[in-house]
Design a protein that fits this description.
By secondary structure, this protein is an alpha+beta fold. It has one domain (4-133): Roll (2,3-Dihydroxybiphenyl 1,2-Dioxygenase, domain 1), CATH 3.10.180. It contains three helices and eight strands, in the order E-H-E-E-E-H-E-H-E-E-E. The protein has helices at residues 17-24, 66-74, 88-97; strands at residues 4-13, 34-38, 43-50, 53-60, 77-85, 108-110, 113-118, 127-133. Strand 6 (108-110) and strand 7 (113-118) form a beta hairpin. The two termini are 24 Å apart. The structure holds cobalt (II) ion. The site of cobalt (II) ion has 5 residues, from strand 1 and strand 5. Cobalt (II) ion binds next to strand 1 and strand 5.
């Protein structure tokens, strides 16, 4: 059975990171670690660590991503929950045998991590991301 090690991050889609920071940083008092352009996601992302996990504010930089469509349709909000696992590929195989619908059948390999998304149709409406941290 795949082990969910921790919540790596919760991603919140926003129209404007600077505007969103007025609540998440200035209001709640969560420290901003850094803001980064993430071309692979066509987004600008603000990283705000909280204990052992992180809030990510995701501002789409292009109209053709899932996050951009989410922003257009819902005006932003909580977008996905990401769990860290030891083995993304193995977890995907296991989920598939349980009949869980996947967005990525194979992990996407990025610098420092492998990742995949599980379809919200199988999770009660929550987009779930899986991370395997690699060296
Ligand atoms: Co994520």
């Amino acid at each position: 059975m795949a082990k969910m090690n921790k919540v790596n991050h919760v991603a919140i889609v926003v129209a404007d990171i600077d505007e969103a920071l007025k609540f998440w940083r200035d209001g709640l008092g969560i420290q901003l670690h850094h803001i980064e352009d993430v071309p692979s996601q066509k987004a600008k992302v603000a990283f705000l660590p909280v204990g052992d996990t992180e809030v990510e504010l995701v501002q789409p930089t292009s109209d053709d991503t899932g996050a951009a469509k989410f922003l257009a349709e819902k005006g932003g909000g909580m977008h996905h929950l990401c769990f860290e696992v030891d083995d993304v590929a193995g977890t995907l195989v296991e989920l598939k045998t349980k009949g869980v619908r996947l967005i990525n059948e194979e992990p996407l390999v990025l610098p420092g991590r492998k990742m995949a998304f599980i379809h919200p149709k199988s999770t009660g409406g929550v987009l779930v991301e899986l991370y395997e941290i690699t060296k």
